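Technical note accompanying the year-one report. For the benefit of new consortium partners, we illustrate the data format agreed upon in the data management plan: each record pairs a sequence with a structure-token string. No post-processing was applied to the example shown here.
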Amino acid sequence: MYAVRDHDQAVARLRRSYAAVPPGEPVRLAKRTTNLFRPRSVPRAPGLDVSGLGRVLHVDPAARTADVQGMCTYEDLVDATLPQGLMPLVVPQLRTITLGGAVTGLGIESTSFHNGLPHESVTELDVLTGAGEIVTARPEGEHADLFAAFPNSLGSLGYATRLRIELQPVGPEVALRNVRFSRLEELADAVAEVIATRSWAGEPVNAMDGVMFSPGEAYLVLARFADDTGPVSDYTGQNIYYRSLRRRTRDALTAYDYLWRWDTDWFWCSAAFGVQHPVVRRIWPARWRRSDVYHRLVRLEHRHQVAARIDRWRGQPARERVVQDVEIPLSRTAEFLRWFARTVGMTPVWLCPLRLREPSGRGSARAWPLYPLRPGQDYVNIGFWGSVPVAPGAVDGDVNRAVEREVSELGGHKSLYSDAYYDRAVFDRLYGGDTWRAVKDRYDPDHRLTGLYEKAVARA
């Protein structure tokens, strides 16, 4: 593990680099990877020095906690915890998502139906504020306001340098049941039962997500952590994970492969690069079958527009990128999915049930002001990632705006890692604008850090 002295030196470098950013210049992190889909302006000033802030500091198997630096990826954290039979309470589905990024930008995965979102397993965090100071925020105490407002602040209130998170036991293998539903209402009923009982058809359920291929064909994947399942599957080679849901009612993976089952093919988005074609797959190096590689290819396309130019040359219509994750109340999920199938028509879509965490012995679930899901409310995260043709007479962004309207009408919320089109008044209402401003004024009085609206909508 990383020495405390080395961590302190890394934090000192970060603070010096922050102080060196000229007043009025945008502040950004100097990091090599990103899981954002929001186009951003490029600051003239150099990025903040985060070298040395990407490690696991300490894992305490007895207390089931880990102290982790803010730029540590979940891939590195899992490598440190799995050998001790532990995992984070929620492991976002892509390897290079960082702990700090999952907390300030939100994350989700198949344990979220009982463990909530990643920030709900944080017990304390050190934050570099907009004033250039390091403060330790906890649920109670002097900086409880920052602790509550940090999730979904997207770096507008500061950057996490260290986080202490809770861990949970996990067996070496994971047994899976792929349950098909031909009616979305029946799928929603099954989700409600699993959330309430943590079981299905007499078997315990430790994790749950799913895929909708069409309104008449959807699957829940019900996972049980196990010590020995027998033979396990491998979806890092020729076989492709999401396709297995249609072929197999029972399956098993190692715990490691289960946590990264979606990363190998970026869910199903690797098809855009030909990686799912059997011939291409055989020659595409296995070390390049991972989400950060695909994301770099997408960024290159955004920069150089090669595919877009080819489409124009072929007389194809322009395409609108529709890359979103939205949280819909479980009771309205079937309604939204049918609307989406009619209006957008993109398939497959990912389904991930969610409920704010209700820790035993610590009272009811708490609300998080900058992403105000309702305590006690069951939701389903619906993820869809791709593009659609711009219809005649329409403009780029129309489909995303329609999604935003439908999500709001159904009482849902959408994540802000991708394009957003809200005006400021609506944005403030949906994402805790009054709370954000109060915390911003306290911890970044000169507003040196880019504002939340500017980051999420104005693309600053």
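Partners are asked to follow this layout when depositing records. The chain has a mean pLDDT of 93.
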